[in-house]
Amino acid sequence: RSWFTLVSAPLNETAPATRRRSEWGAMAGMDCLIGFVGKDFAIVAADMNAARSIMVYSQDEDKILKLDSHKLLAVGGDAADCIQEPDFFKKNMDLYAMRNGVPLSTHAAANYMRGEKSYNLRRRMSQVDMLLAGYDKDVGPSLYFIDYLASMQKLDKASHGYGGFFVNSLLDTHWKPDLTEAEALTLLESCFKEIQKRFMISMPNFTIKIVDANGVRTVPRASS
């Protein structure tokens, strides 16, 4: 092989992967996930668009998975990975609960997910951003930010996607530790209005779910 072939081959081989990462970055940004903790609950919201490239397939997609009676997982990213990976996590967490007679805590679940994503990062990398919300009896509500590169952090408030660029300032300004449920819903509606006003992509519908001491529930919106 010539010197030119040896030098140029790696560049040609990496170019498609680079393009794929760039394309996925644009796709992942089109999902909007918002979450924060309140006085005695954690709340997460997600847009309901199912889209790829320039086309929207539907606007009734539920992107918030119920992992167990006191955990919610909001996901955004590649459409196939957003089904496969959360389902894999849920089944393994269910298996752990069956074997040990006790479910994973929210903190343990976040570390388990982070560990799996880190292990697979250079093997069979999944392209999913996540917000994990949960409620534990001795800890209370908690929220964990997990991205597709296996970064994980416990936060009071967080967001994923381009929508986060528009709502982070609202969360910084209006979030407080003793937020009531009514105040949380008002804050979320302010976030939705800001996204619908400023963001170039139409996001008319959002799902809102809450987890507290009584479990998980969906909150209906007055208007969508």
UniProtKB/TrEMBL annotation:
UniProt cross-references to InterPro entries, sorted A to Z: Ntn_hydrolases_N, Proteasome_beta2, Proteasome_bsu_CS, Proteasome_sua/b, Proteasome_suB-type
Gene3D superfamilies: Glutamine Phosphoribosylpyrophosphate, subunit 1, domain 1
Pfam families registered for this protein in UniProt: Proteasome
Gene Ontology BP annotations: proteasomal protein catabolic process
Annotated signal sequence range: none
SUPFAM superfamilies to which the protein is assigned, alphabetical: N-terminal nucleophile aminohydrolases (Ntn hydrolases)
Record keywords: Cytoplasm, Nucleus, Proteasome
Subunit structure: Component of the proteasome complex.
UniProt record similarity statement: Belongs to the peptidase T1B family.
Name by which UniProt lists this protein: Proteasome subunit beta
Organism: Chrysotila carterae
